[in-house]
Design brief:
Helix content: over 70%
Radius of gyration: 24 Å
Number of strands: 0
Number of helices: 20
Distance between the termini: 16 Å
Structural class: mainly alpha
Largest sheet: none
Order of helices and strands: HHHHHHHHHHHHHHHHHHHH
């Protein structure tokens, strides 16, 4: 059930209305049933996988809490084996459904390079939506229990709701038990202001998804699917636009999820903080997919030693963490390269910092002025956008071919030709749709820029007269309805991060 589908527009109001009318003691049971119905709407068999992950991590956490009593001679060893077994089982399920075919193909290619023909049996399985998200959420819980940061949850059904809470189930944010679990126990009553704020945030998410992301997708899909007929300049433009497509697609989903949860009284983790106004790659990753970035920081990077084990080991840990993060996003070497490049950028930035600082001092470059920050932002966007080429391409080989084709057909001198620019904008979009896309991007950038300056939009809007507030509410609804990409000629476009 997609957020941008008619079925969700029926499902969500029914869930909310019943949720606020039933007694507090059964609210979590209603949400649990609604969450499983939401997830099973894709494929009922998916419920068996999320149930397996839920039961194993819940049972393992209870066993961890008893290890000190049951294994008095070596409790710490027993706890480690319990954690390792639970992690192995959950990661094993994730590996089978997401990485088995990729691993088999990689092994066969490796042997073929050595002149040896090897055929490994391949099992054709359908990747369950959201499996990476709820697996990491469950693993984060069991690790927190192992570290004694939280107590083990005794109520299986409440814990099952923590894993399957439908607003953030299939594409995050990846919630920590320290944030979401205790909220399941809290009483939630109807609050008009909170509901209105949640619906407004959902509206902004729909605007990002339907008006901007899905419109850009038409152009990007056409260029990446037929790159050999386009110039390097057109491929460059499509790659720049993909940066905004994936941002509006994923940030739009996150805002819808956070808004839907807020309507019901839950507070989810903020997942984006104006990432394209970052001035360094490190700053970008502190603002992009925050729930996943902090997950890898806390459960992979720091356990590897983080930055406490010397400079070169710190860079090793950084590269390894980002390479694994890339693999989490997709079973392909292009994703690994995408992640590794982002780690390499940060290692290179840290390594060259003393040289760059001395150069700035000798050249008397002002680093506190707006022009310097603008230049930093442009460079950062360029570096990040280059990596998106590997992320979006069908494979690593395709990405390299696109690069080679683009370099050989850059058409740099034709950039100033008006006819060429007109051809660029009509690649796959009509002039009207291209103009709407540009207008939507201008609104997005303005909002993100104000957010970067810590402007409180909700507070500012609340201080306006009632006629102006409702003009904004209805205006947002009409913009989404009129300019959203949907209808008989379009399927309900799935969110990009559903494939992860």
């Amino acid at each position: 059930m997609l957020f941008n589908s008619v079925s969700f527009l029926i499902f969500f109001p029914i869930v909310v209305l019943i949720y606020f009318f039933i007694p507090q003691r059964v609210k979590y049971l209603w949400l649990l049933g609604a969450s499983y119905f939401f997830y099973m709407s894709w494929n009922p068999r998916y419920a068996l996988l999320i149930l397996a992950s839920t039961v194993t991590t819940w049972g393992s956490a209870l066993l961890l809490s008893k290890c000190g009593k049951w294994f008095t001679r070596h409790p710490q060893r027993a706890e480690k084996w319990c954690l390792a077994g639970c992690a192995a089982l959950n990661l094993g399920i994730l590996f089978f459904f997401k990485y088995y075919v990729f691993t088999v193909e990689s092994i066969e290619k490796l042997f073929s390079l050595m002149g040896v023909s090897v055929k490994v049996p391949v099992v054709d399985v359908l990747l369950p939506v959201g499996i990476s998200f709820y697996t990491f959420q469950a693993l984060g819980y069991i690790i927190d229990v192992y570290r004694r940061e939280i107590p083990a949850e005794k109520n299986l059904l409440r814990y099952a709701l923590f894993i399957s809470f439908f607003p953030q189930l299939v594409a995050g944010p990846i919630e920590r038990s320290k944030n979401l679990m205790y909220q399941i126990y809290q009483p939630h009553v109807f609050d008009f202001q909170r509901v209105k704020d949640g619906l407004l945030l959902m509206g902004w998410g729909f605007f990002q998804k339907l008006v901007i992301a899905d419109r850009i997708a038409i152009l990007v899909n056409d260029v990446y699917g037929n790159y050999h007929v386009y110039s390097g300049l057109q491929i460059l433009l499509a790659t720049m636009l993909f940066a905004f497509q994936i941002y509006c697609d994923f940030a739009g989903y996150s805002d819808i999820a956070i808004g839907a949860a807020r309507v019901m009284g839950f507070t989810l983790t903020k997942n984006f903080k104006s990432p394209y106004f970052a001035t360094t790659v490190s700053d970008f990753w502190r603002s992009w997919h925050i729930s996943l970035t902090t997950w890898f920081r806390d459960y992979v990077y720091i356990p590897l030693g983080g930055n406490r084990c010397g400079k070169w080991k710190k860079y090793r840990n950084l590269l390894l963490t980002f390479a694994v993060s890339g693999l989490w996003h997709g079973a392909g070497w292009n994703f690994v390269v995408w992640g590794a490049l982002n780690g390499l950028y940060q290692a290179a930035g840290d390594l060259t910092l003393p040289v760059r600082t001395r150069l700035q001092q000798r050249l008397h470059i002002r680093t506190q002025c707006g022009s310097y920050r603008l230049l930093q932002g442009i460079i950062t966007f360029g570096l990040v956008d280059f990596t998106w080429l590997f992320f979006r391409a069908e494979s690593f080989t395709t990405a390299l071919r696109m690069l080679w084709h683009g370099i050989n057909n850059i058409g740099l001198f034709s950039f100033f030709n008006p006819d060429t620019l007109l051809g660029i904008q009509t690649m796959a979009l009509s002039e009207k749709n291209f103009f709407v896309m540009l207008l939507g991007l201008a609104v997005l950038l303005l909002v993100d820029y104000k957010k970067k300056q810590n402007v409180d939009f909700k507070g500012t809007l609340a201080r306006q007269n009632i006629w102006f507030r409702w003009l904004v509410y209805y205006g947002l609804i009409f913009v989404v309805l009129i300019f959203g990409i949907y209808g008989p000629e379009y399927d309900a476009s799935t969110f990009i991060y559903f494939q992860f």
